[in-house]
Every structure is written in C-alpha cells, then in structure tokens.
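RECORD TYPE: inverse folding
INPUT: structure tokens
STRUCTURE:
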C-alpha cells in the first residue's frame, strides 16, 4: 500500500486527482473525519497503488541531459533518450510514481501513456520521433514508441520516478 505525504498547497481533492483515485475512496481508506483538515507532512494512504519499496525498479529522469535511466535493484538496466518540456511548459521536478497506464492513447502520445502522480503529466510515446532529444513537450516525458513500450512492459504501476533538472 502506498502512502503519500501531504505537501504545502495540497488538498485531498488535488491528491485524489494526482493519483487518479476517487476522493471518497481516499477519505474512507484514511478514516478522515473532516476532509478539510489535513496538514503538511501527514501520511495519506492511496488505495490500489502498490508499495514502491516492494518494486525492484526505479526511474530517474534528467531534464538537462534528456535521458531516462531505468534502475533495477539499484543498478542501471538501461538509459533511454527522451524529449522534455519546452519553455513555459517545464517538466516538473520531484519524486513521483507511475499510477496507471493507457495503451494506444492516440495523437501525440504515441503507443503508450504511463501516468505520473501529478495530474496531466506522464511518460509516453510520440507520433513525432524527430522530437526526441529536444525540449518540445508540454511538460511530459516523450520517448520513442518502442522504448516506452519496452519500459512499460518492465515497470509496474507504483514504480518510483525521480525527475531532476
């Protein structure tokens, strides 16, 4: 079971959106009497998300070098080239997890979408392979379709994703 730690400015509603988990489900799972009273640093159980500590994989994204590195048991398994957010649409920096996935999302998202625990952001394929290596997205992490499919076949939901500048 995954525990989210409340950050400044977050509400239960924003947390539910980030994790694509119904608000009521989070309130019930945490036995919260007053949903308007949560505090920074409070642990919130997110039902349905596996415990990342039980997953041998971790993803590290370097915005500066435009690479995504897949680790298995602390060792580099593979490094992939990526595209990142363009000016005014920065790729968010921080620690996230993969919360769900959608095959064949269509359009600019290529053949697979891996949702991050930040609403509207993900790791996905592309219909524009020439964009890989560039800062051109609306903040998401773009990969070649064959690369995101390979990554998606390896990492489960709950996998940690650390994005560094």
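DESIGNED SEQUENCE:
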């Amino acid at each position: 079971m995954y525990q989210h730690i409340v950050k400044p400015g977050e509400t239960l509603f924003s947390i539910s959106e980030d994790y694509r988990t119904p608000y009521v489900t989070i309130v019930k799972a945490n036995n919260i009497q007053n949903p308007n009273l949560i505090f920074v640093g409070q642990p919130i159980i997110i039902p349905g998300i596996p415990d990342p500590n039980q997953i041998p994989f971790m993803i590290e994204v370097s915005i500066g070098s435009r690479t995504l590195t897949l680790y298995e048991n602390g060792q580099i398994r593979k490094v992939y080239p990526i595209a990142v957010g363009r000016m005014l649409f920065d790729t968010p920096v921080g620690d996230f997890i993969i919360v769900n996935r959608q095959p064949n999302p269509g359009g600019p998202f290529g053949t697979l979408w891996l949702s991050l625990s930040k609403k509207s952001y993900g790791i996905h394929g592309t219909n524009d392979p020439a964009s890989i290596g560039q800062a051109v997205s609306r903040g998401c992490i773009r990969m070649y379709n064959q690369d995101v499919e390979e990554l998606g076949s390896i990492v489960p939901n709950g996998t940690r994703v650390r994005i560094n500048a």
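NOTES: Helices lie at 12-18, 23-29, 145-154.
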